[in-house]
Write a structure and sequence with these properties.
Elements (H helix, E strand, L loop, with lengths): L1 H13 L7 H66 L2 H8 L6 H16 L11 E7 L5 H4 L5 E3 L7 H4 L7 E10 L4 E11 L11 E8 H10 L7 E5 L5 E3 L6 H13 L6 E8 L2 E10 L4 E8 H4 L1 H47 L14 H40 L3 H17 L3 H18 L5 E3 H18 L4 E7 L7 E3 L3 H13 L6 E11 L2 E8 L6 H9 L8 H17 L4 E5 L7 E7 L4 H10 L3
């Protein structure tokens, strides 16, 4: 069971349905749900209809062959009726029962009487049907010389013909089939009916003559043509010996193939049947029927492409219906899936805005359904989240301002006391210049640190503050500390955050230079290595420190009781990023030689209005 579930799951993954949107999957499911039953139902209807149409076609062809049989039987019965009228004619019976004429005059009179009898039944003109009776009288050799009509002849003139030899000995009448009567200027193909004549008044005479009635085959061909199932169909008549009586002439290759097929298969056909077969590379429907009166076969051969006209038309209707169903189902599935997936797309769209930090885009949804409940709670959550972020932002800004204020207010008391103490000793030992210099430096440092509460100053002002601090430290250390400042002049007017250099110089002195012997050196370099970026490097020759550890302290959150060193440098980095964005800040880098290299990266800006643009471009 679990294996089957796994297989179905794998099949759906192979179909890659899960890789598409909900709207696409819903549309596919709806189309499958609608089109699959419609296709199955349509296939069943078409199959049953095609079977019914084929059965109707077969029945129709058999009915046509039945009509052919009926017409042939009717023609033969008509000829038999005509033959009976001629046979029972009293004048004819007088001639048949009388002896041979005595002289030429009697011969001529007999011929004249027979001609009058036959003239009443002869229909030689173009009217349909074209029936021609003819009498053959036994033992009348004089007819060769005296005869003046085509309807009367001596019986001895036909005794050696093939059709005469085929007449059954004991039959009352027979139809010998197709007969070609060749005349001097024409050849007439007809269906010949033959009847033996007896002298009813002299029963002892075995046979007195023979009556033939010829029916022009054009009349039969017209009947067969009118009953063809399709324009390209053909109907053949075969006699009892399976010889073709009538049908298309053996002209083209297809007709020859049909003739060969009939000749090889007709002897096995009995009663009636319909079957499909391929003749000459084309599928045909072959139907046949046996005419019981004569033993003949009526055969209909029709190309299936002709008979399937109704089926083809029905197939077109089915295809059109399917196309319309697909079109309607596609439109309905599009509308339905759009109606269902539209709220989901709105939700995804709002979530994409939320991902970018925009929390002021609520979802507008006017319907009253399950989605409205979800969106109301989502909008409420977004509003609450936005309020929390605003509160957090204000809190953090206030916290940073408080830290800065605390840093500015907490000028190290020890530094102040030591400075005042140094001033005292200098006053005692040296009395004038050094005291003046140190006091001046201290005054400048305090003035630039406070700077009327401004947080943004020029690079030039920041350097003056740093230099004041260095002068004081230099005097304190009895010139054990020296410093160098290198700056590109065009960068002096650039804006920077106040009190960036002093914490770094203080760290370099306390944790680097004072822990080594000899003169300490601090080098400050300000230049622009990249377009629109200002770089400040503070390098000392102290005992040094691990660069990775220093950078980790910058990235980590401050902990209670943390060292002043990490607090001051982290405060420098935070204030830079607070004003200019996370693309700028403080970092420590590897270098050749002793000491620590601190690098500050700032944007090159000259006006306060530029700072907000820079922060937006480098935030996040």
């Amino acid at each position: 069971m679990n294996q089957n579930k796994l297989n179905w799951h794998s099949i759906f993954h192979v179909l890659a349905l899960y890789r598409h949107s909900i709207r696409y999957r819903l549309m596919i499911y709806f189309l499958i749900l609608v089109l699959l039953p419609v296709s199955i139902l349509t296939s069943i209807i078409y199959s049953r209809s095609a079977q019914t149409i084929s059965e109707n076609i077969t029945t129709s062809i058999q009915n046509n062959l039945s009509l052919v049989e009926g017409n042939i039987v009717q023609k033969i019965e008509d000829m038999n009726t005509i033959a009976s009228f001629i046979y029972l004619n009293p004048k004819l019976q007088n001639i048949l029962s009388s002896g041979r004429p005595a002289d030429d005059t009697a011969i001529i009179n007999e011929l004249s009487n027979l001609g009058n009898i036959m003239q009443d039944y002869d229909v030689p003109d173009e009217a349909s049907p074209q029936i021609r009776p003819k009498l053959f009288i036994l033992d009348r050799p004089e007819y060769y010389q005296k005869n003046f009509t085509d309807n009367i002849a001596n019986m001895e003139s036909i005794e050696n013909t093939a059709w005469f030899q085929s007449i059954p000995f004991r039959s009352d009448f027979t139809v010998i089939g197709m007969y070609a009567d060749e005349k001097p200027f024409s050849k007439v193909t007809a269906l010949r009916y033959v009847k033996r004549l007896y002298a009813l008044r002299h029963i002892q005479i075995p046979m007195a003559g023979l009556l033939t009635i010829d029916l022009n085959l054009d009349d039969i061909n017209q009947i067969l043509t009118s009953l063809k199932p399709s324009p390209n169909s053909t109907i053949y008549l075969l006699d009892a010996s399976n010889r073709i009586i009538t049908g298309p002439a053996n002209e083209d290759r297809q007709t020859q193939s049909i003739w060969r097929y009939i000749s090889s298969n007709a002897p096995e056909w009995k009663d009636r049947m319909s079957l499909r077969t391929v003749i000459g590379g084309t599928e045909h429907l072959v139907s046949y029927r046996t005419i019981e009166l004569t033993g003949w076969k009526a055969i209909s051969i029709s190309p299936m492409q002709d008979l399937n006209g109704k089926l083809v038309a029905f197939r077109k209707v089915i295809i059109i219906m399917l196309v319309l169903c697909v079109l309607v189902a596609t439109i309905l599935s599009f509308l339905m899936t759009n109606d269902i997936s539209s709220p989901i797309r709105k939700f995804v769209h709002s979530m994409s805005y939320t991902k970018t930090g925009t929390l002021s885009e609520p979802i507008v949804y006017t319907r009253r359904d399950e989605f409205s409940f979800m969106f109301d709670h989502y909008n409420r959550m977004i509003r609450q989240l936005n309020e929390l972020i605003q509160k957090l932002y204000v809190t953090e800004a206030r916290k940073k301002k408080a830290e800065l204020d605390a840093l500015q207010a907490q000028i190290n008391p020890h530094f102040l006391y030591n400075t005042l103490d140094s001033i005292n000793w200098l006053a005692i030992d040296h009395q004038a210049p050094d005291i003046s210099k140190m006091v001046t430096a201290l005054s400048d440092f305090f003035r630039l640190s406070l700077n009327k509460g401004k947080n943004i100053i020029t690079v030039q002002e920041e350097l003056r503050q740093a230099e004041s601090y260095l002068i004081i430290q230099q005097i304190r250390s009895n010139n054990r500390i020296s410093y160098y400042i290198n700056v590109e002049e065009e960068l002096l007017r650039c804006l920077t955050v106040k009190l960036l250099l002093q914490p770094l110089i203080e760290n370099a002195i306390l944790h680097g230079i004072e822990k080594r012997r000899g003169t300490g050196v601090i080098q400050i370099t300000i230049h622009s290595l990249e377009p629109d970026k200002l770089t400040i490097e503070i390098l000392d020759n102290g005992v040094g420190a691990e660069v990775d550890k220093l950078n980790e302290q910058l990235r980590s959150k401050p902990e209670e009781g943390a060292a002043v060193q990490s607090f001051g440098t982290r405060n420098v980095n935070d204030r830079i990023q607070m004003w200019f964005g996370e693309g700028y800040g403080l970092s420590y880098r590897e270098h050749q030689g002793q000491g620590v290299l601190a690098v500050i990266e700032l944007p090159i800006v000259h006006y306060m209005e530029e700072i907000a643009d820079v922060k937006n471009d480098h935030s996040g």
